[in-house]
Amino acid sequence: MKVPSAKRSRLISLFTLFILGVCAVTAAREWLRVEPMRTEPLSAAARRAQQPLGQQKTAPSITQAVNRWSGFIRTQFAGDEACKPCHVAEYEAHLRSGHSRTATAMTRTDFAAQLLRLQEYHDSRRDQTFRFRLKDDQFWVSTDSQTTRLKKPGQGRGTDAGQSITSEPPTNVSVKVDWLLGSGTHAQTPIAIQADGTQGIELRWSAFKGHSDPQLTPDHEAFDQFQPGTAECFGRPMDAMDVRSCLGCHSTVVPPPPLPLTAVTTIVNVGCERCHGPRKEHVLMAKKGLAEQSKPTINLHDAEAYMETCSACHRDERSVAVDATEAEKARFQPYGLKKSACYFAAPEQLTCSTCHDPHDTTSHDREQYIQQCNTCHQGTDHTVCSKQPTGDCVECHMPLTEWTQGISFHDHWIRVIDDDSGAIQTAPQTEVLP
């Protein structure tokens, strides 16, 4: 589910995402030597001018590039299971977290089984019916697409200007659904992508926790009216940037363009190596008792590095649209945290991991969070809450904000909100101890 944002915001988000995996992508690009796609073909003379004398080689085919990328994945990435023998607690915590199940092949999901039992789903907002089937172990959805045209003013007896009529009988269109994205903590949304990653579709219906039937995917009200015969029949069209950034934030690593996005080229779900980098060498060295000699390729050495890692997908001020609503902003925790007085007072100390175990599922122990606040806000009159000294810090200063369809997030912009007027006081109201 994607909050609509400006093209620039999506570009920044994708750029940040790729920076996180630079250790993988940079090395792979050098190894693969796949040239960027060109908008215009080079002339024969230009091609010869780019090659050393006596050579008439061309760039490797996509098939060759895929084989090399797969070799790179195989030799550089160890996989989560390889971390378990030495990091049992972190491994088991990760299994509890949403990160471990952010992308699942559609055919292997409970949601797919549910839709196949239903056989069809009627979208009352469009008066449109979607039908589901399994073919050759692939999940397919189909619907009827109608092409219409407008009557000219005065055309026919008793017609009004602009009245539409059907010019062609309905035709059946279908698309193969590839992935179900989301941990299921709140919701999960299916996507269909073209193998080369150049375009895709975010499907119009999603699975919401607590709902037995499919529900409208957030923000798809914008597609109640759609262009017949196009991807909009099924939901929100996705361009190449959408596809790679969307799947990329639900995966450990995705291949660089123009390689296709498949189960072979992509390590789905946010695993250990998404934040710690490729660790195959580390695992091999650990078996020899020399683990410390293989340093992390992504070094989370300070608070800023932690924030950069989380912000790549959970977003900060660089990738949240300038016209985003307050409810949308509350969905992106790093954005709010970096606006907080607490963060400005201790930027070298306060990060997402200050309150959340990055390996485990989000804790709902409110007392734990209050105690964390009190590690700084205690000791003097200036640091103790004047209204409720023993109250719930989170309830007042990080209010629960509904985003959509009963899904709510705690606003991580820690601040004082005037109870009487509802106005936000942006100036720091407390002194935070170092």
From TrEMBL:
* Start and end residues of each Cytochrome c-552/4 domain: 242-277
What are the UniProt keywords, alphabetically? Signal
Cross-referenced InterPro entries, in alphabetical order? Cyt_c-552/4, Multihaem_cyt_sf, Multiheme_Cytochr_ET
| Biased segments, Polar residues type | 161-170
Record's keyword annotation contains Signal: yes
Region (Disordered) residue ranges read: 145-170
Q: What is this protein called?
A: Heme-binding protein
Native source species? Rhodopirellula halodulae
